[in-house]
Each structure stands twice: as C-alpha cells, then as structure tokens.
Amino acid sequence: MRIVIEGATEEFAEKVVALAARHQAELSVTTVRPGWTVDRAERYLRSLPAGGRRMAEMVVVDGDGYIDADRLRRALGKLNGPSNALTRAVPRGVRKGWWPEGTPAPITPVSNPDNPSWHQNIAYRMDEELVPAFRQALTRIHRSATAAPATDRGVSTAAEPTAPWSEEAPSAFAVPPGWDAGDDAPRALDLLDEKGAGAGSGSNSEQE
C-alpha cells in the first residue's frame, strides 16, 4: 500500500507509519510539500505568457515582493490579462502535476483597505520568503535565453572573411593573350559598344 500525504510534515507522516505498524500494516508514505522551490518557480514563470511573466518579474525584481498597481499599469497597460494569467497558472500546474494541490498563489493582489468595495487593486505582492526562489528562477530563465547556440562538434559556422585583392586588377584596355600591341585586337569596351548598339536598334524597331 502506498499513501501520499500532501501538505503534511514529516513528523505527522512518521506518526501515521507508527500507527499502521501497530496494526501490522506496512505503509510507504510520501509527503509532498506545497511550498515554492526554485524548480517550481521556474516552471511557473515559463508557463506564463509574455505579459504575465513581465508582471511577475516586476513584482519580484522591481518591487522586491511588493509593487504598486499604477506602476504596473504604466508598464503593461491594463492588468486584466496578465493578472488572470497569474491566477490560472497555479491550478494548471496542479492538473499537470507540477506542484501539489493546496499550493498557494505566489503573487496576490492587494485591495484598498480604505475602500474594499472598490474592485481595482492598488498593488500586487509576494511573500518575502518566496522572493529569493523566484529571483533565482528568473536568473535561470534569462541565462538560458541569452546562451549562445552550440555548434556541431565545436566548429564555428561563421563565414570566413574574404581575403583582400592582392594583385593588379585587369584593365578593359589590356591586350588579350596571344595578340600584339599593334594588332586590331578586340577590347572589352568595343564589345560593350557593339552590344549597346544592337540593343538600341532592336528597341527602336519594336517601337515602330
């Protein structure tokens, strides 16, 4: 028999095992803690769309766990989309088995204490003890995003620079090989003039 106890302490699990032993039952108890580890925080952040991840990053990095909603709105615009993404990420992770049921949302809204009926939040916060784990998770994500792509077998795929021309460039007036300077040798410019003339006459005939 295997029993999974979510959110229980190891001390409680030991008591359950001891109780089962008194009834001559063999149990294997696994405790799954619902807290936020660095790995869970990284998976949570990677599951968010761009707006939601940017909002979470601002809460963690810019606000160090607490940031005014107006500041978020100036950077992101309306917060409906990003805040809904944060809310949906936790139950989605439970369904996928990323963390156990009962894991609290890492980022929560703060309502106006002077006007609780006003539905617009004044800030967003994260528990102080969670900030280091999420900071480390963000660092992992940024490092993986900026890592240079590996090349096959360590060989660089960058194109080699073209070597500069070290010889004298050929001249259009140069005598072709096998011809003397006094011979009526064809020149590159003469050939171009002949081609141009032929093209011009053809063009005129088409117009007529």
List keywords for this structure.
single chain, 208 residues, mainly alpha, 3-stranded antiparallel sheet, two-stranded parallel ribbon, 7 helices, 46% helix, 9% strand, disordered C terminus
- Strand fraction: 5-15%
Number of DSSP strands? 5
User: Quaternary arrangement of the chains shown?
Assistant: single chain
Distance between the termini: 100 Å
* Main β-sheet description: 3 strands, antiparallel
Compute the CA-based radius of gyration.
37 Å
Our count of helices gives 7
Largest beta sheet: what is the strand line-up?
A: 3-5-4
Judged by helices, strands and strand pairing, the structural class is mainly alpha
User: Helix content range of the residues, please?
Assistant: 40-55%
Flag low-confidence runs. 151-158, 199-208
Overall shape: extended
Q: What is the residue-averaged pLDDT?
A: 76
Order of helices and strands: EHEHHEHHEEHH
Task: Describe the overall structure.
This protein has helices at residues 10-22, 38-46, 50-62, 69-76, 80-96, 131-146, 188-207, and strands spanning 2-6, 28-32, 66-68, 108-110, 123-125. The chain has 208 residues and is mostly helical. Strands 3-5-4 form a three-stranded antiparallel beta sheet. A two-stranded parallel ribbon has the order 1-2. Helix 2 (38-46) packs across helix 6 (131-146). The longest helix is centred in the C-terminal third of the chain and has 20 residues, at 188-207.
